[in-house]
User: Fold these one by one.
Assistant:
Number 1:
Amino acid sequence: MGKSKRPCLDCRRLFLPTADKNSYCPDCFVKYNNLRNQQRRAKPKKKDTRVRGTRAYDDPQYRKYRKQLLSMATQCGICLKGVIYDDPFQVDHIIPLALGGGNDPNNLRVTHRSCNIKKKDKRDVIGIK
Ligand SMILES: [Zn+2]
Ligand SMILES: [Zn+2]
């Protein structure tokens, strides 16, 4: 009793199945394997391009400005109030990086965390992230 041939799921040609190639003939197996590898490779690439350019923390210049701004902060750039207990200051991009804003001091301001979150919520409503 030898192994019996079976039709390939793709081209329907009879072939001898092996342990790791039991659905497709060797030709189609290669084809499907390439396809799967391409898909697998394509996915993380997409993620990378979306993240790139929006990670301000990767910019050492920004980190420097951020530190300076936070050390000098006395007032929130949104509600104009001073330090509020339990609501730490954050550095906010006035024009979001996603909309072409930069990491230079002109585009940075200090806000309360809660004020910044409210601003982000508002942006989400109009569909800007
Ligand atoms: Zn085939
Ligand atoms: Zn505020």
Number 2:
Amino acid sequence: MIRVCISGLGKTGKEIAKFLLEQKDIKLVSAICSPNSNKKGKDLGEIIGKGNTGVKIESSDKIEQIVFRTKPDVVVDFSSPEAAARNAKVFSKLKVNIVIGTTGFSDFTLKRLFLLANKHRNGIVYAPNITLGVNVLMLLTNLAANLLSSYDFQITEVHHKNKKDSPSGTAKKIADEIEKGIKHSGNDDTEVQVPITAIRAGGVVGKHDVMIIGEDDKIEISHESFSRKAFALGTLRAVKFIKGKVGYYEMNDVLNLKKVLNDYIQEENKSNKKRYKNLLGKNEIKAL
Ligand SMILES: NC(=O)c1ccc[n+]([C@@H]2O[C@H](COP(=O)([O-])OP(=O)(O)OC[C@H]3O[C@@H](n4cnc5c(N)ncnc54)[C@H](OP(=O)(O)O)[C@@H]3O)[C@@H](O)[C@H]2O)c1
């Protein structure tokens, strides 16, 4: 059983709380809001449309007491970059592990998150891209950049109009993957800077499109989240991964997609060899 505390009960945090409450191997032990929030003192069930959960929502200025009393193994944070950075420091000092889904950190703050985990020897997953689908998209664009390094890459992302950071953390990470892929290809003729177009409109949960355009053809890779349940599924994997671990990790560590790809290629090679072997009899092979 993993004891989880959820910090940040906005659009995403509420969906994740609902989902975690349904998991048999997870016990939601505490829920944290901002100091002036009108959620303070309410039962978690009241704000997520469930019955009484027995989890009272408490304010982030009481983190120490909340941790001592409810003893979470992992905190899940979907709040704001300022609150997440501040709270991560306190959780780390208390040696509680954290999954940070919040986005919009400066490079300086990201470096501090990395240092926090090393200094306090707790575990942190920083996951600006928590869905499995988006991580597969990143792997595919990394491969495409390696194979098509002379092509032009463009990213467009669309999110609901209340999303605060722009461009999204995920779009920036996709750009990093493309830049890494081009560098690995050995094409270092040009300094790569992948353009990102960010659109904030309506209620779009999250959409990322990568266009890969050459002189004669074009590839498009797209990912769209239809609901926030995709974020909850990714969070559950990250929570299970970080329980009891020490150090700083990202979603590619949680999902280990490069190993999956590597194993797949090895299996493919093996079965190709077998197929050719079966095409020829022993004597035919000897005669070769
Ligand atoms: N990683 C991913 O794949 C992914 C997916 C979706 C969203 N996100 C990110 O997750 C974050 C939240 O997104 P959202 O759409 O849920 O935003 P949101 O609806 O604005 O929710 C943020 C919540 O944080 C709470 N908060 C503010 N200060 C706090 C504090 N000190 N302690 C605890 N809670 C605090 C606020 O509520 P109260 O003031 O009432 O407490 C607010 O409801 C954003 O950075 C977003 O970009 C990431």
